[in-house]
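Example record

Each entry pairs one chain with its bound ligand, 6-O-phosphono-beta-D-fructofuranose.
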Amino acid sequence: MRCDLTPAWKNLQLHAQGFAGFDLRAAFAADAARASSLSQAAPHVFADLSKNHVDAATEALLQELARQTGLAAHRDAMFRGEHINHTEDRAVMHWLLRQPEGTLGGSLAEPLALVHGTLKPMLAYAERVRADAQITDVVNIGIGGSDLGPQMAVLAMQDRVIPGKRFHFVSNVDGHELAALLRGLKAENTLFLIASKTFTTIETMTNARSALGWFKAQGGTDVAHHFAALTTNVGAAAAFGITTTFGFWDWVGGRYSLWSAIGLPVAMAIGAQGFQDLLAGAHAMDQHFQNAPLKANLPVRLGLLDVWYRNFLGYTSRSIAPYHSALRRVPAYLQQLEMESNGKRVDRNGHALPYGTSPVLWGEPGTNGQHAYFQMLHQGTDTVPLEFIAVKKPTHQLKDHHELLLANAIAQAQALMLGQSDAGGHKHFTGNRPSTFLLLEELTPASLGALIALQEHRVFVSGSVWGLNSFDQWGVELGKVLAKDIHARMLSGDVAGLDASTGALLQRLRD
Ligand code: F6P
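Structure tokens for the complex follow.
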């Protein structure tokens, strides 16, 4: 049943009315067990949810909403390999990429065997490249899910990256990016990974063609040694002239593809075992999502909290603050994950929805954000739930830095909640501003895998309650089509039939 037509939705609306005067400080004072009852341990991730605008009744009602909208059945359909991405008639099985070998039967046995049949040669190739001293620079050319995941993960694992190799990520069709990088490279020392699920994305194909042209112009001949393709479209890669190819399948969405051949730069950076550990951490979270009861299921609790904030309390964005500089691309990664998955205005039947869906996601690492936009979080007119991501143990010896970093994270969460009274003047902080605190013991491949899988599943949960297909992305198509037309007009100068603004801008750029 559509979420807003369920009895639980009505009850949540009533509950939200009574919630107008909710105050975090009062909630903690009234309930000594609040911190523990609103905390949740999950594989590799501990979450303190207690500084959120929820109470036990809210959570119970949200779980009822999950039941009445069939969340568990939808989740189980995904894990059975049903074609829940119905607009593209595809299964949604990124989770299968981290499923241990030989552990599933029935119709999933064959795709699981394919997964491991591809993973093994991919990891063997990663190890060969790691051992190849001639290759000092690995350049990943891809965009969206074929860029953000591996880029985010290689950066997150920066302390484990194999010495003697540099990893670069080129995504934008803006030639400044590729040109600046190529200036510092030598063809004989460079390996290009052309990462594209479809192998048709214009930005990636343009960058790949230019990289190949540069390689040949530098005297490079051994394309098989210096180019590899990561794609579901093996035929297109071969037609492009690349013979070293690692494939994956249409049931892996681009923004969910880190675990597939798209993860090859990560495997090269941290080694086959590291990549296996990343998969294992994600798998542990898959199991938690599948098996933990709704009330003790972290992705479920987070996803339902997202629905509560978006639809009942009217909070339209969520800010992400990783208090770890190696996690600095996590906000960008989560932006695609959430907003490309749930930024939809129609339900699974294509009917317009009367309620809000994806929040706006944004953020920067702490403590940097504190000296930039946190002003607005503390004293602005909008309530923006903030999600902290902190790591207990550092990998460096600068103990005092890490203590300061973590102290700042906790202090910010505290300041947002407590506020400060100054008779309503400039120094007045209202407090009662919500935050979630995610804590990893250490930043390892396994904990990173778990953290990312947690985020994937929480997006599944809110998308499922909202009745969306979280796995297509038709909203990116129109711009692609129009860009082709405008590009042709840019060359020809034909502005006939264009609106006055578009025509004038085109003319101005041509003059
Ligand atoms: O344009 C959006 C999108 O299709 C994303 O969903 C995807 O991650 C990205 O482009 C890149 O696509 P591909 O891997 O096919 O090049």
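The radius of gyration is 24 Å.
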